[in-house]
Amino acid sequence: MALVLKSVYKFYNYYFNENVDERIKDLFLINSPWPLVIIVTAYLYFVNGNGQKMMKYREPFELNGIINIYNIIQVFLNLYLAIGATWTLIGIKDLNILCIPEARKMISDEGKKIVYFSHLYYLIKVVDLLDTIFFILRKKNNQVSFLHIYHHTIMVVGCYIYIKFMVGGGQPTSLGIINSFVHVVMYSYYFLTSFKPELKKSIWWKKHITQLQMTQFAILVIHFLMPVFTECDYPKGLSAGIAFQNIFMFLLFADFYYKAYVKTKK
């Protein structure tokens, strides 16, 4: 038992203290895993029944003002990230967009900016957890699905691992850019329909947001398979794993789309 604990300590000390890139060493919610563990544990505890129990005999909270502010902040944050990261990639000389090297090997000013945008994307994913909290506080429990909880949780945990052990950047940069553009559209819709609920009947592009999300996953699957089947300075196993995750997300969203828009219509 003592040998096992010693091995765990060595592993933890090496990856969380000794083998740390200086560019991420002091980043907020990165250095130690415990704040994130607490956040994710509290989130899962609340959204998997306990929050619903708390609200069972309460009136739903009126959060329109807070949600309007939240949605518009999300629009501008995601737009800033998407444009900033895209512009940074464009500025990297001789960069092959289909094969983006690891950030550890990008020591230029552009590489530092990519790390910055990767960290910002991670923080946005942490803030995204509020989506589920708002659903429960407003007693819209039908929107708290497995897809919703799984997607938010895996994005936060995945982003932490991505920055902590891969310093951000690399092939997944495309994921952050594409996903941020998608979220600009999504939160714009949320803002408009929350600001003026009567617009829900007149805004026709609700189902197309899901189509857009499915399209992003399809594009990302192809993008992450490029290092697997071509000569690319990015870990093939890691890239294949992320491609598989995007296939899984595509199937989950496709199932949601079928139940919400195809089956219901029939």
UniProtKB/TrEMBL annotation:
<dbReference type="GO" id="GO:0030148">
    <property type="term" value="P:sphingolipid biosynthetic process"/>
</dbReference>
<comment type="similarity">
    <text>Belongs to the ELO family.</text>
</comment>
<dbReference type="InterPro" id="IPR002076">
    <property type="entry name" value="ELO_fam"/>
</dbReference>
<dbReference type="GO" id="GO:0034626">
    <property type="term" value="P:fatty acid elongation, polyunsaturated fatty acid"/>
</dbReference>
<keyword id="KW-0276">Fatty acid metabolism</keyword>
<protein>
    <recommendedName>
        <fullName>Elongation of very long chain fatty acids protein</fullName>
        <ecNumber>2.3.1.199</ecNumber>
    </recommendedName>
</protein>
<feature type="transmembrane region" description="Helical">
    <location>
        <begin position="173"/>
        <end position="192"/>
    </location>
</feature>
<feature type="transmembrane region" description="Helical">
    <location>
        <begin position="242"/>
        <end position="258"/>
    </location>
</feature>
<dbReference type="Pfam" id="PF01151">
    <property type="entry name" value="ELO"/>
</dbReference>
<dbReference type="GO" id="GO:0034625">
    <property type="term" value="P:fatty acid elongation, monounsaturated fatty acid"/>
</dbReference>
<feature type="transmembrane region" description="Helical">
    <location>
        <begin position="27"/>
        <end position="46"/>
    </location>
</feature>
<keyword id="KW-0808">Transferase</keyword>
<keyword id="KW-0444">Lipid biosynthesis</keyword>
<dbReference type="GO" id="GO:0009922">
    <property type="term" value="F:fatty acid elongase activity"/>
</dbReference>
<keyword id="KW-0472">Membrane</keyword>
<keyword id="KW-0443">Lipid metabolism</keyword>
<keyword id="KW-0275">Fatty acid biosynthesis</keyword>
<keyword id="KW-0812">Transmembrane</keyword>
<feature type="transmembrane region" description="Helical">
    <location>
        <begin position="212"/>
        <end position="230"/>
    </location>
</feature>
<feature type="transmembrane region" description="Helical">
    <location>
        <begin position="114"/>
        <end position="137"/>
    </location>
</feature>
<feature type="transmembrane region" description="Helical">
    <location>
        <begin position="67"/>
        <end position="90"/>
    </location>
</feature>
<keyword id="KW-1133">Transmembrane helix</keyword>
<dbReference type="GO" id="GO:0042761">
    <property type="term" value="P:very long-chain fatty acid biosynthetic process"/>
</dbReference>
<feature type="transmembrane region" description="Helical">
    <location>
        <begin position="149"/>
        <end position="167"/>
    </location>
</feature>
<dbReference type="GO" id="GO:0005789">
    <property type="term" value="C:endoplasmic reticulum membrane"/>
</dbReference>
<dbReference type="GO" id="GO:0019367">
    <property type="term" value="P:fatty acid elongation, saturated fatty acid"/>
</dbReference>
